[in-house]
Specification:
By secondary structure, the protein is α/β, with parallel strands linked by helices. It has a single domain, classed as Metallo-dependent phosphatases (Purple Acid Phosphatase, chain A, domain 2). 20% of the residues lie in helices and 26% in strands. It has 6 helices and 15 strands. Helix 5 runs parallel beside helix 6.
């Protein structure tokens, strides 16, 4: 399953880069929306830009941090043109999360996937998002909190960070174990950046500071993630691509009955 990031609106081959016609034709996610087919029709979404689906005990909502929200970013490879126009994304997200929250007796977990993070140490100052992350936070965080999203999976930065349960720039420590390895009925979403699988640009420049809501980070090793899930437990592992050793792991528990809205 896929969701849009900044590179899906860009062309990197020399032939495309030197051709204004090709850059403009591909700039508004044309190739990306042609190549894949996500379940947007089934979920009332928009092409491959935003959509949702259930898999086992998890409802996955995929959204676009590239288009169709206030102060969405521009595309640097097409004369800084701002793209989008795929529909009312924020209205769709609210309807989708509201429906999922009411369906927790059947599908208890809600995950949101989006390319750009809200919480990343690099793009924060004194624990507060700055730059584009501030615009992402302003657009989406209230919906994540209102409908009690469990996990927010992101990328964009080419490394790994796992945050503590976090809301409005503050860690919410209820149910968090001393070594941050168990989150027992956390009271805020858990944000995870898993962008270290590897690509031609290499690892991102690591931050030179930390944030109080950051639990674990790995700015050196390429890796991938494995998730095991049932109705009451999520087991998350970040695994080294080089030797398959476990670089990070933690468990989330859901033992209290969820109240739907």
């Amino acid at each position: 399953m896929v969701l849009p990031g900044n590179h899906e609106a860009e062309c990197h081959s020399p032939r495309c880069m030197v051709s204004r016609e090709k850059r403009m034709a591909l700039g508004n996610y044309a190739a990306y929306n042609t190549r894949f087919k996500m379940p947007s029709e089934e979920s009332g979404g928009a092409l491959n830009m935003w959509h949702s689906f259930d898999h086992g005990p998890i409802h996955f909502t995929s959204l676009s941090t590239e288009t169709d929200y206030p102060n969405a970013p521009t595309n640097q490879f097409a004369r800084n043109k701002q793209y989008g126009g795929f529909g009312d994304q924020l209205r769709w997200i609210e309807a989708d999360l509201k429906k999922a929250n009411k369906n927790r007796d059947k599908v208890p977990w809600i995950f949101v996937g989006m390319h750009r993070p809200i919480y990343t140490v690099f793009e924060s100052k004194s624990d507060v998002p700055i730059g584009q992350t501030l615009a992402v936070q302003a657009a989406f965080e209230e919906l994540l909190l209102r409908y009690k999203v469990d996990v927010v999976l992101t990328g964009h930065y080419h490394y790994y960070e796992r945050q503590l349960p976090t809301a409005k720039n503050k860690a919410v420590m209820d149910g968090v174990s001393a070594k941050y390895t168990v989150y027992d009925n956390p009271k805020a979403p858990v944000h995870i950046i898993t962008g270290g699988a590897g690509q031609s640009e290499g690892m991102s420049v690591p931050p030179t500071h930390n944030a109080s809501w950051n639990a674990v980070n790995d700015y050196k090793h390429y890796g991938y993630t494995i998730l095991h899930a049932n109705r009451t437990t999520l087991l998350w592992k970040y695994v080294s691509s080089a030797d398959h050793s476990i670089l990070d792991q933690f468990a989330m528990l859901k033992t209290d009955e969820e109240s739907s809205e």
